[in-house]
Amino acid sequence: MVIGIMAVAIADGIVQVHPTDQVQPAWLAMILGGPAIFLYGRIRLERLVFNRFSMRRLLSIAALMVLAVPLAFTTPLIAATAAAGVLLGMAVADARHAAGRPPEAPSPPF
């Protein structure tokens, strides 16, 4: 998860310096890969702590991968906005799923 956060920080710097330039493949890898790496780390964390598999996070990683092709022809700002949209959609889905439920206990209990 930390590597994903570092990649997102690098991507933020790219977007701030080159918001309207043509996106480069390495930039796109940071912009979309950072959130994907973070989500992969979160999937592993949930597997260890809660003994469950998060399909929403896997679908979000897949959405980021699918978006890579059309976003290769845009700007870094548009790519970052699309990545933020995917993450926002996942967060809303998580919030709707958790609404009205008690906090989840770790498995196995500590």
Structure overview:
The chain has 110 residues and is an all-alpha fold. Helix content is 75%, strand content 0%. The protein contains four helices and no strands. It is elongated. The model has no long low-confidence stretch (mean pLDDT 94).
Query: From the alpha-carbon coordinates, what is the Rg to the nearest angstrom?
Result: 16 Å
Arithmetic mean pLDDT? 94
Q: How much helicity do the residues have?
A: over 70%
Question: Termini distance?
Answer: 23 Å
Question: Which of globular, elongated, flat, extended, rod-shaped describes the shape?
Answer: elongated
Number of domains: 1
Estimated structural class: mainly alpha
Largest sheet: none
| Poorly predicted segments | none
Task: Enumerate how many helices there are, as a single number.
Answer: 4
Strand and helix order = HHHH
Report strand %: under 5%
Number of strands: 0
Nutshell version of this structure?
The protein is an all-alpha fold and 110 residues long.
